[in-house]
Design a protein that fits this description.
The complex is a heterodimer of chains A (about 190) and B (about 250). Chain A is α+β, with helices and mostly antiparallel strands. Chain A is built from six helices and eight strands. The chains are: A alpha+beta (about 190), B mainly alpha (about 250).
C-alpha cells in the first residue's frame, strides 16, 4: 500500500494543478541520502517510469530533454540529471531498460520485456490468421490490424529485437524487402 | 489534680487508643461498605444503561466515548477481557480488537513513507477509508483506546503529543526532546530548515544537524534540495496528511 499511497501522491500532483498535499512530493524529486529511504524512492520511481511510459506509449527517454514525469511545475521541482540517471540505471539493472548510447543520454524503456513483445506478436499472428503469410515490419506496427493494440506505433528497435527472438525460435523468417529500410516477415505455420 | 503517668495511666491510655482505633476502623469499614454499596449500585445502573443503549454505543462514537468515561469513573473497564458480561453484552471487545488489528496494518503499510510515525488524524482517516461500508463509525477516541490495548500486548505502540498534534509511533525508536521540538516546528509548514531551527530554538547548527540526521536515518524525515533558495528542507510525513487529498482537480 505504501507504493500505492505514494503513487496517488505523485500522480495527484501531476494531474492536478494545485499544490496542496503535494508538498511532500518535493522529497521525491531529491535523491535521498539514507539508504533505506533511497531504496524505496528508487522502487517508486521505477514503477512510475514504467507505468507512465506504458500509458503514454513512450519507448525512449532522453535524459537531457524535457520529460513531463521528471518535473512538477506545481511544486517547482525537477529531477536532477544525476537522479534521472540513477533511476533509469536501476531499471537497466532489472532488465526493464537499456542505454542506447555510452554517454547514457538516451534510454530504451522496456515496459514490456522483449519476451513479452514476442508473445504479443505471436498472439497477433494467431488472432489475424497470419500463419504462413508474408508482411512487412512496418505493417506490423502501423497496419490496420495494429490499431488499438500495443503493437501500434511500437518502437522499431524493440520490434526488431522481438522479431529476431522469434526468428531464433523458428517462428518466423526475416528477409530484406524491396526498399532499403523495410524488412519483410514470413510467419511459420 | 495532676495526672501521673503511672502504669495504670499507661494502661488506660493504651485502652483508650485501642478503642479509638477500633472505632476508627469501624468508621472506615462503614464508609467502605457504603462506598461498595454505592459502587455496586452504580455498576448495576451502568449495566442497565448499557443494555438499553447497546445500539447507540455501537453506532455512535461520541456516545461511546462518553460511555467509556462513565465506566472509568466507576472503575469498570468494558475492554478488560474479551469474555464476560461487557464483552458479551456490547460485543465491543471485538470491535476494539478489530480496530487494533487494522491500525497495525495501516502503520505497517505506511511505515515506508513515514518511518513509523503517523499523526492520529491521518491514521483515523485511513482507518475510516479502510472500514468504508462497515456499520460502525470510528472516532479518534476509539483509535486511542484500541492503541492502548495494543500497548498492553507489548507491540511497541505509543501515542505522543507534539505541539497541537498527537502522533502514533509504531516503531521502538524513541524521540528525545530535541526531536520532539523539531517535529513541533515542522507542524507549521510540514518542513524545517537548519536556519529556522537555529533561529527559533536558538540552537547551534551542529545541534540541529545532529538531531535532523537521526530523524533522517530513522526514516521520520526526508530531504528536499530543490527549492530555488538552495536551502535543504527536511520534510516530515508524520505532520502532513496524505489522505487529505480531497478535492479533485484531476
Amino acid at each position: 500500500i505504501h507504493i500505492f499511497v505514494a503513487k496517488i501522491f505523485i500522480s495527484f500532483s501531476f494531474i492536478s494543478k494545485n499544490s496542496y498535499g503535494s508538498q511532500l512530493g518535493c522529497t521525491f524529486f531529491s535523491l535521498q541520502p539514507v539508504r533505506d529511504t533511497r531504496e524505496k524512492q528508487v522502487q517508486l520511481w521505477k514503477e512510475l517510469i514504467l507505468d507512465y511510459c506504458k500509458t503514454q506509449k513512450i519507448f525512449v527517454i532522453g535524459l537531457e530533454e524535457e520529460f513531463p514525469l521528471f518535473s512538477n511545475p506545481a511544486i517547482e521541482r525537477s529531477l536532477t540529471h544525476e537522479a534521472r540517471e540513477a533511476f533509469l540505471a536501476a531499471l537497466v539493472s532489472e532488465g526493464r531498460a537499456e542505454w542506447l548510447d555510452k554517454g547514457h543520454r538516451k534510454c530504451l524503456i522496456l515496459w514490456h520485456r522483449i519476451q513479452d513483445w514476442a508473445d504479443i506478436i505471436l498472439n497477433f499472428v494467431k488472432d489475424y490468421g497470419l500463419e504462413n503469410s508474408v508482411t512487412t515490419v512496418e505493417e506490423i506496427r502501423s497496419g490496420p490490424e495494429s490499431r488499438g493494440t500495443d503493437l501500434q506505433g511500437v518502437d522499431r528497435i524493440i520490434l526488431m529485437r522481438a522479431l529476431k527472438l522469434l526468428e531464433h525460435k523458428g517462428k518466423l523468417a526475416i528477409f530484406k524487402g524491396t526498399s532499403a529500410d523495410d524488412e519483410g516477415i514470413k510467419f511459420s505455420s | 489534680m495532676r495526672r501521673r503517668p503511672g502504669i495504670g495511666g499507661l494502661q488506660t491510655a493504651a485502652a483508650a487508643r485501642d478503642q479509638y482505633r477500633l472505632l476508627g476502623e469501624n468508621v472506615a469499614k462503614i464508609r467502605t461498605d457504603l462506598m461498595k454499596e454505592q459502587l455496586a449500585t452504580f455498576r448495576s445502573q451502568l449495566e442497565d444503561f448499557a443494555r438499553k443503549h447497546k445500539n447507540d454505543i455501537r453506532k455512535n462514537p461520541a456516545f461511546r466515548s462518553q460511555f467509556h468515561e462513565m465506566c472509568a469513573k466507576v472503575g469498570v473497564d468494558p475492554l478488560a477481557s474479551n469474555k464476560g458480561f461487557w464483552a458479551e453484552l456490547l460485543g465491543i471487545g471485538d470491535f476494539y480488537y478489530e480496530i487494533g488489528v487494522q491500525i497495525v496494518e495501516i502503520c505497517l503499510a505506511t511505515r515506508a513513507q513515514n518511518g513509523g510515525l503517523i499523526n492520529l488524524q491521518e491514521l483515523c482517516s485511513l482507518l475510516r477509508q479502510k472500514r468504508k461500508g462497515s456499520r460502525e463509525a470510528v472516532s479518534e477516541d476509539d483509535c486511542l483506546r484500541a492503541i492502548s490495548k495494543l500497548k498492553v500486548l507489548g507491540s511497541g505502540f505509543e501515542v505522543i503529543s507534539v505541539g497541537k498534534k498527537k502522533l502514533v509511533r509504531s516503531v521502538p525508536t524513541e524521540l528525545n526532546k530535541d526531536h520532539n521540538e523539531i517535529i513541533e516546528v515542522a507542524q507549521a509548514q510540514g518542513f524545517v530548515t537548519v536556519d529556522e531551527l537555529e533561529r527559533r530554538l536558538s540552537w547551534t547548527s551542529g545541534r540541529a544537524i545532529d538531531a535532523l540526521e537521526t530523524l533522517l536515518k530513522e526514516g521520520f524525515a526526508m530531504i528536499d534540495d530543490g527549492h530555488r533558495d538552495g536551502r535543504r528542507r527536511y520534510w516530515f510525513p508524520c505532520v502532513s496528511s496524505i489522505s487529505s487529498l480531497g478535492g479533485s482537480d484531476a
